[in-house]
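Our preliminary data section would be incomplete without showing what the modeling component actually yields. Below, a chain of 85 amino acids is followed by its predicted structure, encoded as tokens that our downstream tools consume directly.
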Amino acid sequence: MDDLVKFLVERIMDDNHAYAYVADTLGGEALLDSHLPMLDLTEQLAHDYKAMDPSDPRSAGLAYALRVLAQSYAEHPAYRQEWRP
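Predicted structure:
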């Protein structure tokens, strides 16, 4: 699961950089307004999972949620099929 969380955080960072480029170059404020909050919340969930004790009963549900969110990057070459929920 650590590999999935690392993968997800890296993709979020990539997306943040891409959106910053779009905003600087093309003025994509609407895109930023709609997608950046979701990226921030997904990153927060990933960090919460890393900080969570594995015995916490919420960890299984959070792990499932991260697997679902990671599916949006399923076409990325580093995505692993075993991460599918």
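The chain has three helices and no strands. Residues 2-83 form one domain. Preliminary results of this kind motivate Aim 1 of the renewal.
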